[in-house]
## 1
Amino acid sequence: MLSQKEIDFIEYWSKARNRQRKLMYQLAVGLPIGLLFGLLIIMNFYAGWYKRADMVANSRFNPVVLYVAVIIIAVFFAIFSKKFQYDQLEQRYRELLAKQKNEERAANTDAAIMNENES
């Protein structure tokens, strides 16, 4: 028997799954998290905690490369994390649908057996 929480999830996901599948939605929702991740990379770079790497970076460093790399990492992280989350929710949805279908079959089989016994 499905719990009320599982039934609510099935109803929610049947409505939201098409919207969350789109690439632009995944990018729009995941980009703030990706940019936060990129900001942490930039802060780590400019913190200067590793002096030898800091000396090498200052001798031949182009900041544009760092910013482009951070943007690429942020976009990749945003899309990848949202696609992963979508796949997990989709798998849960399909498992619950299969469970619901099996329960309906079992109930129909039980009802058919009861009808045959009554006849």
## 2
Amino acid sequence: MEYNTQLKKLALPEYGRNIQNMVDYCLTIPDREERKRCANTIINIMGNLFPHLRDVNDFKHILWDHLAIMSDFKLDIDYPYDIIKKEELNKKPGKIEYSRPDMAYRHYGKTLEKMTQLATTIEDPEEKEQFIILVATHMKKSYIQWNKEVEDQKIFEDLYDLSDQKIDIRNSNIKLPEMKDLTQRNNNNNNNSGKKGQKKK
């Protein structure tokens, strides 16, 4: 009895041993035309194994690429597509450049910086003040994610810098919510969300 571990390693295990055996047999056919007919038959069988992928773009092209791979690129036929090259299989993918936007204060994030700039453009005084307090409150929330404590004055100083000195509430009487209030509010929101997701018995 032969075990799979004793057999030749499959190039593409998802197609199984029988398909690989068909490909190996196809390689031994001396007549080129007959070899091509055999390859077409194998392609049809391979396609039937994954009928849900028939709507995928270039599905047939992918199958021919897989046939070439399973034959170790030794199948001498006229392929209907430009198949993948052997050297491309082991080619390292190109390096992906991650987006690293310049931020003066990374712990606040880019969105808060944009909100700060937006606050400078609001013309209505009452609306502007409410929006500034909203931004400052969110800044405090973001800050305490990294530091347990923060004075409101620190937030006001950072807001002054982020707004290019256009928003100055450093000497105002504005009082931001305490850290424990913010934490409790977040916990309550999370608990309420969990309860909504529970089914009634």
